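Q: Please design a sequence for this.
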């Protein structure tokens, strides 16, 4: 049965019509993401705690899988609920799953610490943003071949679904730290909007960044639901979130009825070792807190993806914010996580400096420290800004283990041998 929610505009790729087989365009998008090298790398990239430390901590891969499950469940709930959707008019769960699986592809090693460090290093060269880097991977580096085809040629709906931000770095009056796309990605915005120019009411900045397709809104809420709860579970298992620390944090901060109720439930779950079961129910509540609302904008006649928007119950949003605030204050501001940030800065700054001195501003003695393919890209890049982007792309593509091994190989005289090339 044809799904009338989508049309040829939604399935088109930058290279033209999406080539389908026994699968529809969105199933092909999802499958290509799952089998991509960049997706597999997420298993060794930090979510909160350094990947590989313990088997039960979430990595970027397991987090992405959990976001995808929540996203699919939101689609199923919206389709079953009373509203505008029906058997032949519904938000495609395969598309939303693909968006959710892809949403963290561009995140660098060392989690948010690595992202902040690359933002600092790239401040004068066009910035670094995890969402923009995801877009770069999908449109330029994933499945790139010698014929000149760049990227995985995703559907317009998938590209639009991962775009949490639509404002270019250079469109801000002052260089932002995050929440932007790269200036070189202007063409993607034009493609996503089908050549239409956003009206003045959606001026570049926060307003344009908030203008998202319904699939992107579902991904965004599924991401919030996943990490607001799962960071707490991992924090408890890691010993960062103890009853004493939680009670000390709550003293003077939690006074409203909702906060007291959530705090009591959390502490009871820790004492009874039932936290995962309790939070599993909470995820279900976050899913059923969603509904659709019709809207009118400059894209709503072109595609149903902008004719409808996701509305999340304010109570559920306040609950997610409660958990995120707790995790940030107790876990992310802890000395242990701050030490990891210090390490990330040291490793990334030293590797950046080595690349810069050997490829961008080489002295009389040049050492070819990069993999040959990366070195060729750097050599071919025209100008410092383009070379800086190539260094950034390489560093952000490394997993936690790869970047530590590379660092030790370059700076630890007792590590590595001529046969140690991985």
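A: Design:
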């Amino acid at each position: 049965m044809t799904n009338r929610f989508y049309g040829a505009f939604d399935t088109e790729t930058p290279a033209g019509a999406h080539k389908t087989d026994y699968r529809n365009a969105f199933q092909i998008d999802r499958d290509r993401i799952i089998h991509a090298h960049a997706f597999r790398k997420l298993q060794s990239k930090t979510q909160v705690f350094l990947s590989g430390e313990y088997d039960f901590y979430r990595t970027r891969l397991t987090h992405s899988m959990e976001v995808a499950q929540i996203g699919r469940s939101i689609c199923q709930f919206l389709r079953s609920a009373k509203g505008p959707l029906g058997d032949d008019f519904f938000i495609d769960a395969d598309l939303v799953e693909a968006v959710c699986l892809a949403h963290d592809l561009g995140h660098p090693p060392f989690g948010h610490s690595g992202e902040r460090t690359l933002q600092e290093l790239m401040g004068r060269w066009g910035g670094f943003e995890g969402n923009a880097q995801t877009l770069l991977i999908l449109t330029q580096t994933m499945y790139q071949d010698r014929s000149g085809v760049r990227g995985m040629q995703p559907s317009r709906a998938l590209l639009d679904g991962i775009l949490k931000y639509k404002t270019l770095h250079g469109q801000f009056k002052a260089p932002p730290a995050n929440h932007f796309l790269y200036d070189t990605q202007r063409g993607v915005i034009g493609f996503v909007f089908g050549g239409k120019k956003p009206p003045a009411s959606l001026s570049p900045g926060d307003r344009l960044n908030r203008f998202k397709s319904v699939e992107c809104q579902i991904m965004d809420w599924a991401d919030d639901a996943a990490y607001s709860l799962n960071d707490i579970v991992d924090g408890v298992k890691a010993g960062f979130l103890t009853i004493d620390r939680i009670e000390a944090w709550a003293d003077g901060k939690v006074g409203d009825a909702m906060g007291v109720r959530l705090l009591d439930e959390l502490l009871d779950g820790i004492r009874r070792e039932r936290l995962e079961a309790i939070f599993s129910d909470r995820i279900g509540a976050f899913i059923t807190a969603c509904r659709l609302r019709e809207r009118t904008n400059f894209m709503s006649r072109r595609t149903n993806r902008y004719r409808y928007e996701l509305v999340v119950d304010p109570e559920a949003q306040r609950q997610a914010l409660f958990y995120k605030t707790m995790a940030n204050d107790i876990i992310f501001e802890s000395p242990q996580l701050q030490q990891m940030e210090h390490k990330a800065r040291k490793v990334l700054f030293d590797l950046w400096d080595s690349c810069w001195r050997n490829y961008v501003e080489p002295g009389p003695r040049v050492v070819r420290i990069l993999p040959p393919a990366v070195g060729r890209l750097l050599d071919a890049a025209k100008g410092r800004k383009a070379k800086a982007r190539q260094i950034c792309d390489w560093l952000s593509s490394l997993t936690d283990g790869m970047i530590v091994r590379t660092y030790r190989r370059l700076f630890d005289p007792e590590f590595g041998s001529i046969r140690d090339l991985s």
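Q: Thanks. Anything notable?
A: The mean pLDDT is 90. The chain has 19 helices and two strands.
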